[in-house]
Design brief:
The protein is an alpha+beta fold. The chain is built from two helices and four strands, in the order αββββα. It has one domain. A hairpin with a 5-residue loop joins strand 1 and strand 2. About 10% of the residues are buried.
Amino acid sequence: MDAQEFYKHAKYCWSKGIKIFPVPINNNGVYKIAIDRNGNVKQGEMIFRDKPLKGEINVWDKISELYKDIFLKNNKEATGNERT
């Protein structure tokens, strides 16, 4: 995903009061991801890394993916269009 696409998805979420961010588990680049929906913060259980092991997804790529998923889900519901 390029920066412009990320910004489009993130800006939409921010306008709805949704923020997604990494929560450090230690000082070695290991995180869980939290989603703040208008002050209601929920933290996931999955572990992500700055430098993922083989077969894992980078924490920042996962955050981008979550913003995109929320954007697509909400825009599909609002417009009745299918995801592309």
